[in-house]
Amino acid sequence: MKRRRLGAVAVALCLGGALTACGNGAGEGRVATGPAGRPGGSGPVPPSGEVVLVPLDGRGPSGTGTGAPSMPPVPSSPSSAAGPSGSPPPAPAAPAPTRPTPSGSSRPAAPPPQFAPPSQTQPQPQPPQEPAPGTPPPPRPAALTVGEPLRAPTNRRWCEKVTVQFRNTGGSPVRSGTTTFATHIIGALGVDWATVESAQPLPAPIEAGATRTETYTVCVDAWRVPLGMRIETQDVTASWG
Asked: Which one, 9, 61, 165, 234, has least CB within 10 Å?
């Protein structure tokens, strides 16, 4: 009977919060008669495995024996989406411009048309145009022929007289030109030692279809023709414009 009274008193003290009571499975109770702490009074004594603590916020029993309420989860903020270095996330790309359609809806704008450069074509050659009837044909160019030179001696071994005939067989007159003489130097035994060229003007003008005869005095350097040698002008050519 005495044990039951002690157990009832211990339960009442636990519920009142003034004293800490505990009980075992056999119905025996222990009552703390002094201040809570270690056997020397140096600090609080942790509960044993026989004590069950109930948190004040009503979250249920805790098996850790600490009795501290757990912290609620911290809500996420927009800054939590930043990268590991704390920099803000990249901004989203701007949408493509839209163009309204007849129905009122919008769609992406089409790219501007590309214009190819105009092709460069080579001009085609035109056929020669025929002259109109009754138009005289254009005159043919001048064509000068040179006859065989006629030689005549002079009182100097290194000079001679050369007569040349020029005939214009073309359709245009010869306005100017040059005649070139090739004079050979002949030795006493008939050896051709050298050829010397000299030039003189044509007897211009020479009309188309006309013939002109001119006599020239052709000379070479005196030292080229020593005593016993002579000269012969064998070739005559002409150039005109």
From this structure: 61
3-state secondary structure (DSSP) of residue 94: coil
Task: Say if CB 202 and CB 139 are below 8 A apart.
Answer: no
H-helix or E-strand containing 2? helix 2-16
Beta carbons within 10 angstroms of residue 185's beta carbon: 20
| Number of Cβ atoms within 10 Å of the Cβ of 168 | 22
CATH number for the 144-240 domain, one of 1.10.357, 3.40.50, 2.60.40, 1.10.3860? Answer: 2.60.40
227: burial class by Cβ within 10 Å (0-12, 13-18, 19+)? exposed
Assigned token pair, 213: 């005869």
- Residue 13 burial (CB < 10 Å; 0-12/13-18/19+)? middle
Instruction: Enumerate the domain spans of the chain.
Output: 1-56, 144-240
> What single letter denotes the amino acid at residue 231?
I
pLDDT digits (tens), the chain, 241 positions: 444 455 555 445 545 444 444 444 444 445 444 444 455 545 555 555 555 656 665 555 444 444 445 555 555 544 444 444 555 556 555 555 555 555 545 555 666 666 666 666 677 777 777 777 777 778 889 999 999 999 999 999 999 999 999 999 999 999 999 999 999 999 989 999 999 999 999 999 999 999 999 999 999 999 999 999 999 999 999 999 7
Say how many residues make up the chain.
Answer: 241
d(CA 58, CA 4): 30
